[in-house]
Design the sequence.
């Protein structure tokens, strides 16, 4: 009887160890659900200028349930308990409404979008073409997420440009 319990416990411990010690990876390609924050229903093609193709890449290394995060592989860009210890640059594609915006943290996608937008200083937004996300690591212990955001930068025309 005792031998069966020991074998049973060893089996459970082995399954749990395999879950935590086995690395995993995933690659996802998608088109973001959000687009231009401006009301596109009231815009015509003549209201904006399409600029160059842009691409932004950002990565986040997460250690111990996300308690420590290293941004873009730079040890000077560290978050501890989700609090950045550096000046973080990001752009939310769709900001959360007020009470929830207090708890909205920059994600890897937000930083990749910011980098794509920053490539063209005159751009007001990026028409979302696609982004790819790659995740690798050991769940809850160490994970590395890399997001590449691509699209076309656009500039909204001013009233002077529209002749109004």
Sequence:
């Amino acid at each position: 009887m005792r031998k069966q319990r020991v074998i049973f416990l060893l089996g459970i411990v082995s399954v749990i160890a395999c879950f935590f010690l086995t690395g995993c990876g995933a690659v996802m390609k998608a088109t973001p659900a959000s687009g231009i924050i401006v009301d596109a229903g009231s815009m015509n093609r003549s209201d904006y200028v399409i600029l160059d193709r842009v691409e932004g890449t950002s990565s986040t290394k997460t250690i111990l349930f996300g308690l420590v995060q290293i941004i873009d592989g730079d040890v000077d860009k560290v978050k501890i308990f989700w609090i950045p210890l550096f000046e973080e640059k990001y752009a939310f594609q769709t900001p959360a409404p007020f009470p929830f915006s207090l708890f909205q943290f920059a994600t890897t996608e937000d930083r990749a979008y910011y980098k794509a937008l920053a490539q063209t200083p005159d751009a007001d937004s990026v028409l979302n073409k696609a982004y790819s996300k790659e995740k690798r690591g050991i769940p809850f212990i160490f994970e590395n997420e890399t997001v590449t955001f691509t699209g076309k930068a656009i500039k909204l025309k001013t009233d002077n440009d529209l002749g109004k």
